[in-house]
Amino acid sequence: MYVERLTPTKPCQPYPLVFIHGQAQTGTNWLTKPDGKPGWASFFLKKGYEVYIVDQTERGRSPWDPTGETNLSTYPAEDIERRFTAPEKFDLWPQASLHTQWPGTGLMDDPIFDQYFASTVQFQSNTAIQEKNMQAAGSALLKKIGPAVLISHSQGGLMPWLIADVVPNLVKAIVAIEPTGPPFMDAVFSNGSTRRWGLTNIPLTYFPTPKNLTSPLQTQIVPNDASDLSNCIVQASPARQLVNLKDIPVLVENGEASYHAVYDDCTWQFLAQAGVPAERLRLADVGIRGNGHLQFLERNSDEIAGVLEGWIRRKIK
User: Is 279 helix (H, G, I), strand (E, B) or coil?
Assistant: First the structure.
């Protein structure tokens, strides 16, 4: 796995940050925004954090094995317009019309859109293989650099749960920005069953230990009366506990206009039920409005980073 290390001029924070990008992305997400302005790496370096930026296994600058179990996929430009950069023009979920923060039109042929689209890459489409590889690579990284805070986005949000499960003493906190979810199912764009371990497709450590590995967790539906929110699937009571995550502070955060606004509450509920000290941050609740799924590339990204940095300071001081 390719890892880029950035060192601040004046280091003053106790633990480094490890940034894990999402699907079809690379670590360049965190370096420079498509409008040419500095990304979150620069923001956190100025705050005195050492920063590690990964390219997920079989992605970007991390090589893939053409003779192995690699099945590559890509995101078409049309999906990126509809889901990420211009959702307000397509109205595919209730909150989409609130999107205002993407620089430019968010549509093909706009120079900022084209710059962003040029940064997207092919990815390993077998999620279980990707999870297994990233668990191994991520835990190896922490064994090399020591304890760190994990900051993840979207599909990259699967990885902190898996990494922390095998090296819990090396994960000081997890900032999960719109992590893949909700538990046990897909939502908004499809509704199929998935992630039988709740948060992931491959095993996590629960107590009591599940005996049926085909269907390891018993579930129940928690209805949601709000028309713009998804029903949640959580564990049936008594819930098995994620014992290796029970001492790790977690923040589950989403933007006001993202499709994750529909269901990120479900991820937070699942974590809390499983004994994880998880907190919930909806950016709109702290006055940060109009953000979509790619909030760290949007116009007010530094304002968001400031809120996240404040949470990190409170949790690891």
Answer: strand
Q: What percent of the chain has pLDDT over 90?
A: 96
φ, ψ of residue 232 to 5 degrees: the values are: -110, 145
Residue with structure tokens 């092919």? 122
Could you tell me if 282 and 290 are in contact, meaning their C-beta atoms sit under 8 angstroms apart? no
What is the set of active-site residues?
154
CB atoms within 10 A of CB 219: 18
| DSSP line for 150-177 | EEEEGGGGHHHHHHHHH-GGGEEEEEEE
Maximal CA-CA distance, the chain: 54
Contact 257, 250 (CB under 8 A): no
- Burial of 216 by CB count in 10 Å (0-12 exposed, 13-18 middle, 19+ buried)? middle
Residues contacting 240, CB < 8 A, separation 6+: 206, 207, 208, 210, 217, 274
8 Å CB contact between 308 and 296: no
Residue 95 tokens read as: 């909150």
Nearby residues of 135 by Cβ (< 8 Å), 6 or more positions away: 159, 162, 163, 165, 166, 202
Give 70's pLDDT tier (boundaries 50, 70, 90): confident
pTM of the model: 0.97
CATH number for the region 3-316 comes to 3.40.50.1820
